[in-house]
Amino acid sequence: MSSISYRQVHLDFHTSEFIPSVGEDFSMEEFGDTLEKANVNSITCFGRCHHGWLYYPSKRFPELIHPNLKNHNLLLEQIEACHKRGIRVPIYTTAQWDGRIMREHPEWLALDENGEYIDTQHVPAPHFYNTICLNSGYRQFFKEHLEDMIEVTGPENVDGIFIDILFHVDCKCPSCVAKMKELGMNTEDKAERLRYASRMLDEFKEEITAFIHEMAPNATVFYNSSHIGPAYKNSFKDYSHLELESLPSGGWGYDHFPATSRYARMLGKEMIGMTGKFHTYWGDFHSLKNKAALELECFSMLAMGAGCSIGDQLHPSGRLSKGAYDLIGNVYASVKEKEPYCLDAKAKTEIAVLNPEEFYPEDSYDLSISPSLIGTVRMLQEMCYQFDIIDTDMDFSAYKVLILPDCIYGNEKLDQLLKAYLEQGGKVLGSYESCLKKDGSESIYGVRYKQDSPYYREFVMPNEKIGKKLPKEEFVMYLRGLDVDADKAEVLMDKIEPYFDRAGEKFCSHQHAPSSGKVGYPEVTMYQGAIYFSHPVFHCYRKNAAAWCKAMVKDALEILLEEKLVSHNGPSTILAALNHQEKEERDILHILHYITEKRSEDIYTVEDVIPLYNTEFRVYVGEKEITSVRNVIRSEKIEFIRDGGYIKFSVPLIEGHEMIEIK
Fold first, then answer.
1. Which of 93, 161, 409, 621 is most deeply packed, by most CB within 10 A?
2. Backbone phi, then psi, for 633, in 5-degree steps?
């Protein structure tokens, strides 16, 4: 049974010392009743904030209690009010941002190679974003702060500790330089400094988790870096669970969570998705997210096998917003009804996508998601494929097809894994530079690299194998591709050259020269179960959403994949995710239909729920006997017919989120 709470709130309380009468209007009963009415069963409350202030009656650091806090027992009373109602209360503290530390202990701050303080947010002062070095004397203060907070709260009352803001930082402060020299590492090499930063951060997490569990052995522990990816994988053993911070309107976008969650669910930890009730970003006081947008974000978490967390910020007065908790309560009422069909559910998938983050350069701890991965996720979701995102430590053999999107730079380990996977009957779809050897030697695709294309834009010619439903005329590819020789491979699609490249004196019209009609190098090839695209087709789709790129990939996947788990006749805006609950012997098909729009200059959101009627689905069930199909949200039985290894049924109404039980 899942041990995480599915209806959480993350209650920020970063409160300036220039605000008076902090917490003056806090009421234990009102606080607890508001949360209970809103169907919340866990809320993360603040022990310490980014301004550097404490919200509990500290014994060791009384001078750090917020100077205008009217009730020094604020955190203790929040915990008491919640525990009385069966609501968990993990405690929040900050690690590498603290405005007071910035002012009073500049010797604890991280320094770049030029001796300047490291501000990862790059915003005008004043702020609290100069990063603290965890190698400095700050580490001892941090442990003393944790010990003080747990002792004052009472170890038996500490449900969990949420530690925020931990980054790999290219720090060249005296402490880091000394430690690196002890280890014989080159302090002048950026890649070496980042390797050390990773090692140091892993050691810090291991030390802090053990330290917490000595005092509060049952507390959950999570370290937040705003993203869950391969760069932090070595330290996940020190996390009790994963929380995926992903506010679509706050810089993460609606492409972040689908990609991150499909990787995070493979890491062997229970996970929570985290969005916000804010219309934009954290700290957006007195704003509310559109209800349809919050539904999409929370129900997507359920579909990906995650619990839900909604970020809020407590007003300095100490009173929760009625409007915010009416909104949260409405969405969480639905989540509560759906929980039994989500607990311990595992995704049923047919395709794995290798995560490009594993192959980022050594001298860059980039937390952004590759455009190629975003393009892949978008394509596969729109085409209703069921897929995971994996790394090279995970089992390739669990999937019928493995996709290598554009920028999977091969190494000896991956070469051996791919060779074994193909020999065992697995299929591969790779593109552009993924596992293509630039020295011109043999690749898994049966093609050899010749050169980067001399044309920044060239064309492809559809045929009856690739681009089957496209007009049989040239289509432009918007990013530069590669020229390859079809050494052993069968050519499935050709490239067509333009008259010339737009360079020097040569140009034509506003963008690029048209097709010359001359057949160039291969665009798509196939060899022993591996299909290759010579253009970065996934990045192309992310950049311009050209439907012909998706059509080309669709045709390639249909060659490689005999049985598709789920298909439908609805629009590509449907997101369908198939999960399995082993204990209940049932599959749950999540169907979501929300359309994100960029109505503003800054953000995407959702305002309207657009219903769909009488949508037909086809689900692969193999030899299993199916006893019933029903819509669990509407308590409606759905008639189905058997078609070989498939069942077919029609969903009369899709309105936001539907869940179909296949028993």
1. 161
2. -75, -40
Contacts of 484 (CB under 8 A, 6+ apart): 436, 445, 447, 448, 449, 450, 521, 522, 525, 532, 534
Helix (H) or strand (E) holding 193: helix 190-215
Please state the separation of Cα 432 from the chain's center in Å: 24
Specify the pairing of strand 530-533 against strand 515-527: antiparallel
The Cα diameter of the chain in Å comes to: 80
Q: What is the pLDDT of residue 444?
A: 96
- pLDDT confidence band for 2 (50 / 70 / 90): low
Instruction: Enumerate residues 6+ apart whose C-beta is below 8 A from 603.
Output: 248, 249, 279, 280
Tell me the HSE value of 153 on the side-chain side, using a 13 A CA sphere: 33
The pLDDT assigned to 366 comes to 67
**Contact indicator for 654, 611 with CB cutoff of 8 Å:** yes
Q: Are strands 42-46 and 91-94 parallel, antiparallel or unpaired?
A: parallel
* CA 242 – CA 234 distance, rounded (Å): 14
Helices (H), 265-366: 291-303, 322-338
Average pLDDT in the chain: 97
Tell me how far apart the alpha carbons of residues 486 and 204 are, in angstroms, rounded to a whole number: 50
Residue 364 has pLDDT above 80, yes or no: no
Task: Tell me the pairing of strands 475-477 and 646-654.
Answer: unpaired
As a whole number of angstroms, the distance between CA 400 and CA 198 comes to 34
Among 119, 79, 74, 114, residue whose Cα is nearest residue 99: 119
Cis peptide before 371 (omega within 30 of 0): no
**Is a pLDDT exceeding 80 seen at residue 362?**
no
Helix/strand/coil (H, E, C) string of 398-415?
Answer: HCCEEEECCCCCCCHHHH
The model's confidence at residue 365, banded by pLDDT at 50, 70 and 90, is: low
Tens-digit pLDDT profile for residues 420-456: 999 999 999 999 999 999 999 989 999 999 999 999 9
The structure's pTM equals 0.96
The pLDDT, as a whole number, for residue 120 is 85
User: Which residue, among 159, 290, 178, has the nearest Cα to 222 in the 3D structure?
Assistant: 159
For residue 361, the model assigns a pLDDT of 84
Contact 496, 474 (CB under 8 A): yes
CB 264 within 8 A of CB 242: yes
- Tens of pLDDT, residues 182-192: 999 999 999 99
Question: Is the pLDDT reported for residue 235 higher than 80?
Answer: yes
pLDDT in tens, 589-640: 999 999 999 999 999 999 999 999 999 999 999 999 999 999 999 999 999 9
The tokens describing 487, both together, are: 């050494």
The alpha carbon of residue 80 and the mean position of all alpha carbons in its chain are separated, in whole angstroms, by 33
- For residue 375, what is the enclosing H or E element? helix 371-382
Q: Which two tokens stand for residue 570?
A: 């609805």
Question: Of 273, 152, 146, 246, which is closest to residue 204 (Cα–Cα)?
Answer: 146
pLDDT of residue 3: 77
CB-based contacts of 80, cutoff 8 Å, min separation 6: 28
CB 197 within 8 A of CB 127: no
User: Nearest-CA neighbor of 227 among 195, 193, 252, 262?
Assistant: 252
The identity of residue 176, as a single letter, is C
Least confident of 301-305, 409-413, 540-544, 586-590: 409-413
**What phi-psi label fits residue 184: left (phi over 0), alpha (psi between -120 and 50 degrees) or beta?**
left
Q: Can you tell me the distance from the alpha carbon of 256 to that of 245, in angstroms, rounded to the nearest whole number? A: 10
DSSP state of 656: E
User: 82 — phi, psi (to 5°)?
Assistant: -75, -45
